[in-house]
Amino acid sequence: MSKHTVTIIQIFRAERLINVEVDAADHESAIEGFQNGSAEVPDFDDPKWTTEWNLQSEAYE
Length: 61
What we know:
Strand content: 25-35%
Distance between the termini: 19 Å
Largest sheet: 2 strands, antiparallel
Order of helices and strands: EHE
Number of strands: 2
Oligomer: single chain
């Protein structure tokens, strides 16, 4: 027997979710605030973010 190198390729899909309170006239206006940049998205490392990882595929070469 001899040693062989095997490459394992995993492709994941990550989905992040955070709920934030926004002062706005209505829900659509609150969403528009994020789309036009007048509302600030929480920092990437804000602990309120929840992340879900889903393995999409795995291959061996």
